[in-house]
Amino acid sequence: MLEFISFSSLSLSSMYPLSLDELSANSSTGSLGSLIDSNQSSYWQSNLSCPHKIFIKFSRPIFVKSFYVHTSNGDGNYQPDRLKITFSEEGGVEHATTPDSTARNDGWSVIPCPSRRKIERIELSIESNHDGGCDCRVRNIAVEQLKGVLEEDKKQIHLKSLAKDFLKIIPSVILGKDEKEEKPQLIAEEKEGIPPDCSVK
């Protein structure tokens, strides 16, 4: 089922800032910047017959909750009718979804992502327009991440930073770089047959 929400009710705070490695199309590439400028008065318009394709590749793979497409019913037969969205995971596995007709609605079409793995690419294919139109117009696109993923990414970055700092302070003997150096103080010596509290190997 395809869900619609009006632009005024869309919270852009939960949207992934589109840091892209690639944004391309099979036609009319000059106005592609309009897809991510958050300006609903501008638009990308194709100049070929259907299907029209937009290709999105992220700078890094992300967990996608939903993909959003903004269209306007004021565009008449330029307004997309049937969409096909393909989510490509890392490793090349693809998940294609064909939502219901976009009808004559002003606003955002919300297309849930069927995969719960990181997504590397998204392909938006416009299969047909309303009233048999050839060229099409798309006002904006947006991507929503799974809730909590941003916080989890920050946590992982913090843990990696701590691990890197920890490795810097471990004596090289522990890492086996120089066997001639003295034993690190972390290794407790046995005294009078009493086992040490801890040892580092």
Automatic annotation (TrEMBL):
> Boundaries of each DOC domain copy?
1-170
InterPro entries in UniProt: APC10/Doc1, APC_su10/DOC_dom, Galactose-bd-like_sf
Q: Where are the transmembrane segments?
A: none
Tell me yes or no: is Cell division among this UniProt entry's keywords: yes
Ranges for region Disordered:
180-201
Keywords attached to this entry: Cell cycle, Cell division, Mitosis, Ubl conjugation pathway
Gene3D superfamilies reported in the protein's UniProt record:
Galactose-binding domain-like
Question: Quick check: keyword Cell division in the entry?
Answer: yes
Could you say which protein family the record assigns here? Belongs to the APC10 family.
UniProt-recorded name of the protein: DOC domain-containing protein
User: From which organism does this entry originate?
Assistant: Aduncisulcus paluster
Tell me the lineage of the source organism: Eukaryota, Metamonada, Carpediemonas-like organisms, Aduncisulcus
